[in-house]
Structure formats: C-alpha cells, structure tokens
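Input chain follows. Return structure tokens only.
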Amino acid sequence: MSTVGVDATIALSVRDNLSEAIVGMRNSLTAFRTDIPRLQEELDRLNATRVQMRMDLSQARREVQLAQRAFEALGDSVSEAERQAAEADWRTAEENLQNLQQQYDLVSRQVRQTTRDMENASGAIRRNENRADNGGDQRNDPPDNPPDDPPDTSGIGNLLSALGQAGMYEQLGDVASQWANVLVTSTAGSDAGTLFSSALSGAGSGAAIGTMIAPGIGTAVGAALGGLTGLAGGASQVFESEDEAFKSYYQQLYTQGQTAGEASLTSGSATAAQRELDAIAFNQLLGSGTGDTYLSDLRKLAAKTPMEYGDLTQMSQALATGFGDSPERMLELMSAIGDAGSAVGGTASDMTAMSQAMSRMQSSGKATLEYLNIFQDRGVDVIGMLSEALGKTQGEIYDMISKGEIKGQTAVDVIQAGMEAKYGGAMETMSQTFEGLTSTLSDIMAELDAARGEGYNAERKAGIQAESEAYGGALGEAMANINRISGENQAYLDNLSEQYSREALSAVLLGEKTTPGLFNDEQAAELKEMRDEFLQASSDYESGSQEAGLIMESLQKEAETLATISYESSAAYQKVQDTELDLISAIRENTAALGRTAWMSDYRMQQEQSKGQGYKGGPLSLMGMWNNYHDNVQERAQAETRSGYHAAFGLNRVPYDGYAAVLHQGERVLTAREARVQDAAGPSVSVTVTGNQFGSGSSPEEIGAAIADAVARKLAAGVR
C-alpha cells in the first residue's frame, strides 16, 4: 500500500511500447471523439431553443394577464356568450403557458443530460488515454533474450480490472444520483435534490476517473473531488432556477403595471366618452347646466350605494319623462325605488321598470292595474300601501283602480311614501355586504379610470380631428387612389396565377393550345409530353387498367405544379419579388442609418429584463454572495467564541483575530511567523510502498522513487 502526505493527482508515464490490446483500446476512442462534436451541436441547438422558449414564456405570461384582465373587466351589459368567450380565451392562454412551461422544463432537463453525456464522453477519452499511456507492460529483457518471447499480459489484466471498477463506480454514481434526486426532492424540494444528486453523480464520475489513475487512494480522492465538482454544478443549476424565478417575478410585475395602465386607459376612455354623451342627453332632458349638476349628484349616489352609475342613468332616463321638471324629486324617487328593490332582491332592470311605471302614472295621471302590477310582480306590495293610506280594503282598492278613481299623482305619492317607510335604509344595509362593498369599490375605481380617460379623450380629440380633416381631404383621395391601384395589382396577379393553372390543365387534359408567350419553349414541350402520356393512360384506363387511372391523377397534379412553377418564374411575379426585396433593403438601410435609436430602445428593454439577481449587488450576485459568506463567517465566529471551536483534526489557518478554539493534549500551535517560515520551506513528502505486487522489471524502490518524483513535480507546479 502507498501513502502520500499531500493531496495531489499522480500520473506516471512509461515508454510508449504498447501491446496490440492497448493499441486497440486507443483506437476505440474514435467513437467517443466523433460523439463529442455531435453532442456539442445538440447542446448548442438545445441552448438556443431554451433561450427562445424563455422569451415565449414571457410573452405567454403577458397574454394570460391580458386575457384575465379582459375577462375581469367585462361589465353586466355583455352577453353570456361574450363572457364565456372571454373566459375561454383566458383558459386557453393559461393552457398555452402551462404547455410552454412543461416544454421549457423538458428542454432544460435535456440540456443537463446532454452536458453530462459530453462530460462522460470526454471523461471516457481521458480515462482510456491515461490507461493506454500507462497500462502497457514494458519488459526489460536482456539483449540475448529471444525476440519472440510471449508478451506479459499482467498489465493488460490490471488495466481491464481498473476499467471494470471505473465503469462500476460511474454506474453506481448515476443510479445513486437518480434515486437521490427522486427521494431528496420529495422530502426537501427540488433545490436540495439537485444539489444532492449532482454531488453523488460527480462523486461517481470522480471515483471512476480516480480508479483509472490509481485504484484505491485515487478512487477516494477522485470521488471527493468529483463530489465537490458535482456540488458546484448543482449549485449553479439551483442559482439558475432561482435567477429565472427572480426575473420572471419582476418581469411579471412590470407587465402587470403596463397591462393595468392599458386596461385603465381603455376602460376610462370608454367611460369618459359615455359620460360625455350622458351630459348631452341630460342637459337636453333637464335643461342646460342642470343635467351636469344632476349627473354629478348621480355619481355620488352610485359611490355610496350598491347601485352602479350606468343603472342609475337608465332609471333617471325612465323617470325624466314624468319628473323632468324636478331633478330633486327624481333623486328621491330613485332612492326609494333603490331601497325597495334592494329589500326584495330586485335587479337593476326591475328598478328601471318600476321607475318607468312611476313616470307613466305621473305623466298620464292614471293609476292603472298594468302599472301597479309592475310593482306587485316584483314583490313590492303597492296595493297594500294604497289600502293603508286611503283606508280601504284591498278589494275596494282594486275596484277603485278599475273605475279610474285613483289619480296617478296620488298613487305615486302614496307608493313613494310607503316605500320610504317600509324599505328605507335597505340600500345602506346592502352597501355593507360583500356584494355591496364590491359594487362601491367598482364605482370608485371607475371614477379613477374615468379621470385617466377624460384627460386622454380631451387631448386625443385634437389628433382625431386632424386625422379626420387630413384623410377626409386631399390625402384621403390620394390614399384611396393608391389603395385602388393596389387592389388592381393583386387582382392582376391572382388572375395571372389562375390563367397559368387553367391553361396548363387544359393543355394536358383537353389538348388545347396555350396563350403564346405564357409558357416558355421548355415548359410548352413538357406540357405536350404530359398530354401524350395522358392520352396513352386514358386509353389504357378505358381498357381496364386501374394503374393507368393513377397515372392520369398524377399527371393532373404534375400539370398544376408546373403551372405554379411557371407562374412564379414569370416576369410579372419576379417583378413583385424584386420590389419586395428592394423594400426590405430600403427599410434595412434606413434603419441602420436613421433608426438606431428606435431598434436600440427595444434591444435595451430586452437586455434590462434579462438581468437577474447578479445585477447591482443582489443577494445572489458575486458581491452579494461574498457579503452573505462574510456575514455567515462572523455569525459562526460569534457562536464559536461562545462555545469554543474544536480543532481536533487540525486547522490550516486561523481565519481572523480573536478566533476561539478548544485545544487538545498533544496538539501544536504555531505563531504566524513560524507558519510562514514552514510554508516557505514547502511540505515534506513521505512515500511508503509495501505489500504490492508489480510486474517484472520494476522493484518497489523504483516504483516509490517514481511516485516521489511525480509528487515533487506536482508540488512544484502549485498543486496542493
């Protein structure tokens, strides 16, 4: 057994006199070498796909948010079909996002697997080359030895044994990594699973490499180094996952802000536009200026009741016919009707119907059963109110109604007073329910959106007016003329394409002549040859050959294909293509010369959103990780100071002043100066070789000397 007093990788080399078996093994490395370029191409493709999918994920998240907001912004005025369509758009966007996320996860896993495959292939090359360079048995035969002595195969046997052990360690590492990923992820989450499985996988690969170099201590050292390397790789994957989550989160916040602003502007602009129309209508109904004041009071009523502003305007329009001369009375009636409707669970349309009945009784002067039943059918007992107010039985009230003895104005006054007495305060009570509070908040938010919309609409009017004047005048006439010409151009191309197809089919199927100059000589000759084949196939088909029918169908498709090729080879079509190419070139040149600021703005936006926690000292930036490490060291130092740190296994360097340690009998503590002197002198290396069996021609002393020389070279190169 050999023992080395320092941690160093030892590689011994012998003269390159390899047996046929070793040469064959070296030649087998070609397969691995040819795999690596293929794996690199696959890795590049997967990485490019993952970058694109990351952008697609951001876009899909924005689409989900837009669809969700569009659904939530729907009011009561939309139909159920429209609501279901908006909800379906939302769900479809969510499904698309889920599918993209699953595909992104799959591609990410494939990237990691391909990376491991490349590492394994490279590792296999290194391991086999190392063994090929060191595993041959160089016999030191004396000169008079017969040249045809049988070769010593003990080195090959040892090599194959080492290869078998290395493969076993690597397989064990892979299996352990897979199980660790499943079990640790299930217990502690995906981050812990990634770290643990990567460490085990790295340990297995390291052990395999170490076994190829020096079975025993090489296996242990390789496993340790491989585990650390795997742990570092796993940490990078965890960092990548956390960084992706961080970027996704703040990008989502940014998108939400942008989307909310757009939705607010869209809703507010529509609300402001409707209120502008309402102002015109109510100033017409109630009088100039009076309508503006009334609508302002109406918005206040909507803000403190569960009734929506739009519903109140509909009720007001219904009441205006009978009570337009008294806006104050209209507000009182709406409050009474609103209390009654809230108490009996009426809808906005129910309250509008009751408002219409009140207005008709007031304007007609009649309290008919038709009008009164509008209240009765909705749970408001106006017959009972009239009976109590007039001191009559309900039967007598019905009789009076049939005889027209109750005036409309009287009925309105009695019903208003009855609703105020019986249902007064119902809206206030309803406004404190969840639905009422939600309605009130909706009105408040509508006011906020309307403010944005009013500002936008007021400023936008000037632009809309300018657009109307421009396109309604000379510019519009010029644009109309260009659009007409564009339509003619498209029709000309469509007609030409159809002509090529029509005449090609006629030439093959009917034997008709084509328009001179439409097809070139080669195309015309091809059509004639196809016509001859078609005639022969037709004759054969009439004779009972089904295969001839297949030929006829094939010739038809071939004629259509030839027509397409001929059309797209024509001067007219090529002129269109040249024009499009010129347009693309002009746009590109103008963009390069004049539009750098434009396209760079979008580029800078993309770059800004690609920054993760490494930006400006985030918790996972290089500076942030150093700060976290420093804080952890300080915190650990304080804990160690309280309890004392046990350095029973040695301590290479005291990390800071005031470091507390619990020492043990027999340990040695050096001053800083003594430690520097010892470090400058360099480490001593002691090598003991015992109990090993070696091939002929190499004594244990020679092996030990070779190992010591190799260790000294490694130390001189800075390996510790």
